[in-house]
Hints:
By secondary structure, the chain is mostly helical. Helix 4 runs antiparallel to helix 5. It starts with 17 loop residues before the first helix and ends with a helix. Helices cover 55% and strands 0% of the residues. It has 12 helices and no strands.
Amino acid sequence: MLCAxxxxxxxxxxxxxxxxxxxxxxxxxxxxxxxxxxxxxxxSPRAPHWVSVMGEAxxxxxxxxxxxxxxxxxxxxGVAPVARAGMLxxxxxxxxxxxxxxxxxxxxxxEIFLRIGEARLMLGQLGGAQEAFRTARELKPDYWPxxxxxxxxxxxxxxxxxxxxxxxxxxxxxxxxxxxxxxFRKLGGDPTTIIPVQLAASAADxxxxxxxxxxxxxxxASTAASAAAPTPTVPSVPASEAGQ
Length: 244
């Protein structure tokens, strides 16, 4: 994939601050090329733990951390549109680098595809965003953010029938998601037609933590990454794309 502008195809973000790093998932403190080296030279003392959790794909994960920084920097006030587009495109490239260097069952793959979708929404690449969210759902059907991000696009563009269908699908896989319960109700649906009454009631009282990976480490990573990546502005989408 090509960068939007050669000027902003910059690879690693420069001058990463301690504040920026603190907003990233915890493993970003230990990946190579930020504070530490690779597996052979000056690795983090915590790297073996992350490799035990994620496998050897951990050594590609610095690109995900770079991408999260690019996205956050792109949303800062006063950033020129061409610079913003370049940063977001660099982020998408970084995210795909991890996907291409990890097995399909990589524990963070659903989350990374979610971030690809969000960055492409910011770029106005609606078809690519839709595809990324769909892939995240296919990899982890109970990963509710991959439903809600596209539901919000559909609602904004008056595709409420399609949004309701997607919300219902999400509830079948993630019945405890407050976000899906709320959206389904707002779209005129009754969650108790899909999930038990008790579960619908309890979901309404939950804060709705994303369905994370199988380990506490990856769940913490998902929470931190959500804080690191701003919620994208939902653009208008042609009706021909919204219902696909």
